[in-house]
C-alpha cells in the first residue's frame, strides 16, 4: 500500500516535511470527490533560487486533473520529485564518489537501513559495561582493585545513567568522536587518570589518547556537576 511505503517511520519525507507528509496522507485517505474538492492538476509549486516556479510532475501535467483514481500516482510522483528529481544535480557527484569507494557486489548484500547504520553509526545508548570492561586506570591510590575507588564507580554510574545523547557527548569529550569503532566497544580503550585533589577544577580530556582526567571530587553530585559542565561547555581545546 502506498501509505506504508511512503510514510514509514524514518522516511526522509516524514521527518523533514511533516506538514506536507500529513497533507498527502489526508489526500490519499479522503473519502469525497477529490477532483471537485481539490481542483488540482499534476503541477506543484517549488522554490528555485528564491523564486516560486510551477513544476509539472509528468508530461502535460497541467492538463491532467487530480482524481480519486490517480491520486496515488500523484503522491508517488510528488515524493519522487522531492527525494530524487529535485536534488539530482547535487546528489549525482556524491553518488559517484560513494560508489568509487564502496562500489562492488558486496554493497548489494545490505539493506538501505544497514548502509545508513554503517555510515552514520547507531543512535542507541552505548554499551557502557563493555567500555568499562576494557578501561585502564592511571594515578590511583589502590593498585589492586582500582574500581573499588568510589570516584571511578561514580563515573561509570553517571555514564550508564545518562541518556543516549549525553553518553555520546561524553564519548566525544573523551575520544573526539561520538561513534564507537567499527570493531565495537571492546576495541576502544578509555584511560581514566587521577589528577589529584584540586576538586574545584573540571575534568579534562586528551582525545589523542582516549583519556579523561578526574580530580578527587568529594561526592557523586560534585562529579556530576563538574563532569557534565565540562562536557556541555567544552569546545576544541577550551571552554565555550
Structure characterization notes:
The chain has helices at residues 2-6, 12-16, 18-29, 34-38, 71-83, 88-102, 112-120, 128-133, 150-161, 164-175, 220-233; strands at 43-48, 51-56, 136-138, 191-194, 204-206, 211-214, 234-235, 238-239. By secondary structure, it is α/β, with parallel strands linked by helices. The strands form three sheets. A four-stranded mixed sheet has the order 3-4-6-5, with helices on one face. Strands 1-2 form a two-stranded antiparallel ribbon. The chain has a two-stranded antiparallel sheet with strand order 7-8. The relative contact order is 0.08. The mean pLDDT is 85.
What structural category characterises the helix and strand content?
Answer: alpha/beta
Q: Distance N terminus to C terminus?
A: 50 Å
**Rg, Å, rounded:** 27 Å
Give the low-confidence spans: none
Give the ordered list of helices and strands: HHHHEEHHHHEHHEEEHEE
Biggest sheet character: 4 strands, mixed
* Mass-distribution shape: elongated
Average pLDDT taken over every residue: 85
Strand order of the largest sheet: 3-4-6-5
Please count the helical segments: 11
Binned strand content: 5-15%
Helix content: 40-55%
Count the E strands. Answer: 8
